[in-house]
Amino acid sequence: MPRSTNSVASRAKRKKVLKAAKGFYGKRKNVYTVAKNVLEKGHTYRYVGRKLKKRDYRALWITRINAACREEDMSYSQFMGKLHEKGIDLNRKVLADLAMNEPESFKQLVAQVK
After folding, report:
1. How far apart are CA 79 and CA 99, in angstroms?
2. Is 52 helix (H, G, I), strand (E, B) or coil?
3. Are 18 and 32 in contact (CB under 8 A)?
4. Which of 7, 30, 34, 44 is the most buried (most CB within 10 A)?
């Protein structure tokens, strides 16, 4: 009896990989084995990138809060310490948004903490 292969499923699998690799440079977009390897690596970077994004945003928020605090003659660490002493629970995302978009209310917050 001849060997039977499911060519429909095989082709679909390869097409799926090549479709996902669309836009890549050179052989990465049209050679199945290369595209498969590049996509595997890309998926690991995608996972790591989600973790790095959180880190990057936190660093950005801290930088923005620090810059706004320095205008009020206070360092970031002093500001955060006094916030916790007073029991004001605002996360860094909200504080950075206040510092950027509503500087007057941020100044009032700093004055309240001093």
Report:
1. 13
2. helix
3. yes
4. 34
